Fold this sequence. Notes:
By secondary structure, the chain is mainly α. It contains twelve helices and no strands.
Amino acid sequence: MDIGDPVLGDPILGGSIFADPIFQAAILPLAAAFVLSGVLRAAGREGRGRVLAGGSIAIAFLIAYVVLLGLPEWRPADPIDKVVYIALGALFVGAFADLTAMPVQIKYPLILVVPLFGLAWVAGPQIRGPLDLAGVATLVLLFAASGVGTYRLTLREGSDLTPSIYLVAGAAGLGLIGLFADANPLFHLAFALAASTAGFALWNWPVNRFVPSATLLVGAGSILVALAGTLVLYSGASRIAMAALVLVFFSDKFVETVRLGGGRINTALRPLAVVGASAVIVLASAALGFFIGVAPEAF
Length: 299
């Protein structure tokens, strides 16, 4: 598949708003994730439901993928098709970790390692091919940035909602940078991930109802890393803009001294401050992608 020449708006849905890529990449995954979060919570009851609800993000993303692009190849060679299998595998691993009450000493390293395995699969053709110094540096920085991002997802700084904010901002940033690089259909998929995470996050504000479980972090985190790797390695997206986007995972640090009242008021409003800081970073990164232009041809 040529990343710059996608086929979107499958006529299977008819010539209506339902075939519009904006609906398929934003409204559909947001609504699907919101509904699925409630369904998974009810099905799993108080204990398992609270941790499995995060799986709604990966499931809603997969629904959006199939509606946008159709079913992937059974033995995918295209990095975009690989994202589907990475999402399925990561969702299974995360749910298994939660349902088996895996010890924290194993679960947290799993959250860090699984997305990197997915990234290695996406980057496989580049790793096996001839590499110059710039290519090696790109791969090293890509894996390092992905490791930092997934590590930051596990910290839950300030609020249980913070990891979801990081995921929404990171995916939205990928979407904007990909849009300016004309990286279709990657930017549609990135927006679909952002919308899916937002649909889940709506359940957690102003009151936290679900925890950022392994199901959520491994599933959504692996999708985000795979999309980022595909955008860096197989499109003309600005790598400087991509590097700047990593700062969204430190958004909470920029507002940690901000007090918006006491007690429950601060608990409810603090995530909004993190959203604001994340939005500034996303827009700045997107501006870099727009003004700097596309990167040199992938190595």
